[in-house]
Write a structure and sequence with these properties.
The complex is a heterodimer of chains A (about 400) and B (about 200). Chain A is built from 21 helices and 2 strands. Chain A has about 400 residues and is mostly helical. Chain A has 3 domains: about 110 residues, no CATH class; about 170 residues, Helicase, Ruva Protein, domain 3; about 100 residues, Cyclin A, domain 1 (Orthogonal Bundle), CATH 1.10.472. In chain A, strands 1-2 form a two-stranded antiparallel sheet. In chain A, strand 1 and strand 2 form a beta hairpin. Chain B has a 6-stranded mixed β-sheet with strand order 2-3-1-4-5-6, with helices on both faces. Classes of the chains: A mainly alpha (about 400), B alpha/beta (about 200). Chains A and B meet through helix 12, helix 18 and helix 21 of A and strand 2 of B.
């Protein structure tokens, strides 16, 4: 029997409010008889009785909680509003018999609460080869337009990009160029972006020292950027040594970003986001716009109220409740249920947790938005999974768990 | 020597870039790296010390200084035994922010207003030629703030770093004694106190 979700064809949809058992199931067009078919194959007889009595509540009440919950965590709000998703993206998430699932009827009368579920065995995943230069070139048609964008993104997701063509590919991944643009349009786009960049750069460049005395906010930001530029990836050859001209470029881009997004300004961590991009682009204007594109993805991490960070940390928590209840309860029992120890991972997307070349690979994979926009949360789970035995066997406490986050 | 040393939680606070991580690294591993990364979130390191014959494990908590990260920094203030308020002597703004840091700490460490707490004030980067804050200004602030001990340090050339951290422990023990708040370890209180009295006698 196939997964319930697979059968539903058009994927996740929010269940309508149910006021009676007679309600039809507009959700997926699955007829009641199909649902009964589903139910009778269930081993638990009690479940079947309950199912026949109130099929809708019994089957969907439990499942919807899991599906809704996974949807909320893995998709951005914009995506969630677009409720119909391609079947390929949602299939096989939940299998019919869901081994290890425990259901409680006590918590909410008339509904079943999934109190425990076990995910199916992990599929074996094989990494592909990086996108090569000839492969990349073959994707362009006569007008310089990329054909088969999805296929291209799949390759990048599976294998990353050959460093030799990174600067070109990243411009698409980071929105410098539109995916469906032709060569002509890209020439125009680039010209406009160059002008725009220097216009914004001039804005802060032309503020005199006198003027800045009465412009505290800008002065403070300049001070912070000044300090952080001197403390960003200085061991990397691109930024090494005193009076390295690339430090000035890093500084200029961050100052110009303040003008581009004055509401956000400069927040610590942004120099970490910029540095690998600048190293790849080796060009101030390109690096600026690609940085702006990368920031677009993570700007909520840097907002004043830090709500974006808190939401993501709680999403990791929710995902782990499903993915690894054992580790999850362990962390909860050791004052780490808030997942604050993952703060740095999320804020700058693992920048300080991996080597420079590894982070470039990881980021280009994440930027494909495959298999979901919140893939970085799954990566966090994967890291914790790899640390699980160390954590449990050594009976790590609160401070040691925090150290795991800093390794 | 008692078998187990008492854990002391020390929180380092101050504006971004005043040298909190550098102070910690100088004290714990006697190293200085001018090009090290700025701190994101919180970090901590442990260091075993013996002060007046008593052993302690100092757990030093280093925090990100930017205002924005307040909500993720402040939960770690609870249970602190010592707070080091840091600024850079070549950065007036960082000095002016000391009251803000003190307030933030007292509030989130949940320490009653007016209750004595061992604060230590550290003016870092005293190796820098251009000063914006001189010693008198800093001392004057400290005298208005429960006479907190003040140290001018340089994590870069190692000036007074060890002294500041060790004095922080002495300060804490003095305050504990004055208040007679709590015995550190049951059954061994009297012994350790005698020992301390003896030690200080030797030194003076």
């Amino acid at each position: 029997m196939k997964s319930l979700l697979t059968m539903c064809g058009n994927g996740y949809k929010t269940l309508p409010e149910v006021s009676s058992e007679r309600v039809s199931i507009p959700w997926c067009g699955v007829s009641r008889s199909v649902l009964i078919d589903l139910a009778v194959t269930q081993r638990d007889e009690g479940q079947v009785k309950k199912f026949i009595k109130s099929p809708y509540t019994t089957t969907l009440g439990g499942f919807s909680k899991v599906t809704n919950f996974l949807r909320d965590v893995l998709m951005t709000p914009e995506e969630s509003q677009n409720l119909v998703r391609p079947q390929s993206e949602v299939a096989e998430l939940l299998h019919d018999d869901i081994p290890g699932m425990e259901i409680s009827q006590l918590d909410e009368p008339g509904f079943e609460m999934v109190t425990k579920t076990k995910l199916p065995p992990r599929p074996t995943v094989k990494r592909g080869d990086p996108l090569s230069s000839p492969e990349w070139n073959a994707f362009f048609d006569a007008e310089g337009r990329i054909s088969k964008i999805d296929e291209l993104k799949d390759i990048i997701f599976r294998g990353g990009v050959d460093p030799a063509i990174r600067a070109d590919v990243w411009k698409f991944l980071l929105g410098f160029y539109d995916w469906d643009s032709c060569s002509k349009k890209r020439q125009d786009q680039r010209k406009r972006k160059v002008d725009e960049y220097f216009r914004m750069k001039l804005q802060w460049k032309t503020i005199s020292a006198e003027q800045e005395k009465r412009f505290t906010l800008l002065k403070e930001r300049r001070g912070l950027i000044d300090k952080d530029v001197m403390r960003t990836d200085r061991t990397h050859k691109f930024f090494a040594g005193d009076k390295n001209p690339n430090l000035q470029v890093l500084y200029d881009i961050l100052m110009t970003y303040c003008m581009y997004n004055f509401d956000l300004g400069y927040v610590q961590g942004m120099s970490d986001v910029l540095s690998p991009i600048l190293v790849v682009m080796e060009n101030e204007v390109d690096a600026f716009w690609c940085f702006a594109g990368a920031m677009e993805r993570v700007c909520h991490n840097f907002e004043m109220d830090q709500n974006g960070m808190k939401v993501q940390l709680s999403q990791i928590h929710k995902l782990m409740q499903i993915q690894d209840p054992e580790l999850c309860s362990y962390l909860e029992a050791h004052d780490s249920g808030n997942f604050y120890f993952c703060f740095r991972w999320i804020l700058i997307v693992f920048k300080r947790e991996f080597h420079f070349h590894e982070i470039q690979r990881l980021w280009e994979v994440i930027w494909t938005d495959r298999p979901c926009t919140n893939f970085h949360l799954i990566i966090s789970l994967a890291i914790l999974d790899s640390e699980k035995s160390t954590l449990l066997e050594n009976k790590f406490g609160f401070t040691e768990i925090l150290k795991v986050g800093l390794c | 020597m008692s078998g187990r040393s008492k854990l002391l939680k020390v929180v380092l606070l101050g504006d971004g870039g005043v040298g909190k991580s550098s102070l910690m690294n100088r004290f714990v591993s006697n190293k200085f790296d001018a090009q090290s990364y700025h701190t994101i979130g919180v970090e901590f390191l442990n260091k075993e010390v013996t002060v007046n014959g008593e052993s302690f494990t100092m757990q030093i908590w280093d925090t990100a200084g930017q205002e924005r990260f307040k909500s993720l920094r402040t939960p770690f203030y609870r249970g602190a035994d010592i707070c080091m308020l840091t600024f850079a002597v070549n950065d007036r703004k960082s000095f002016e922010n000391l009251p803000m840091w003190k307030r933030e700490f007292l509030y989130y460490a949940d320490i009653q207003d007016g209750a004595p707490f061992p604060f230590i004030v550290v003016g870092n980067k005293c190796d820098m030629p251009k000063r914006e804050i001189n010693e008198e200004m800093a001392q004057s602030w400290c005298s208005r703030n429960a006479n907190a001990p003040y140290f001018e340090t340089s994590a870069k050339d190692s000036t007074n770093v060890e002294l500041a951290f060790i004095s922080a422990v002495s300060r804490m023990r003095e305050m504990e004694d004055q208040l007679d708040v709590k015995p550190i370890q049951t059954n061994s209180v009297d012994l350790s106190r005698k020992q301390r009295a003896l030690n200080s006698g030797c030194c003076s």
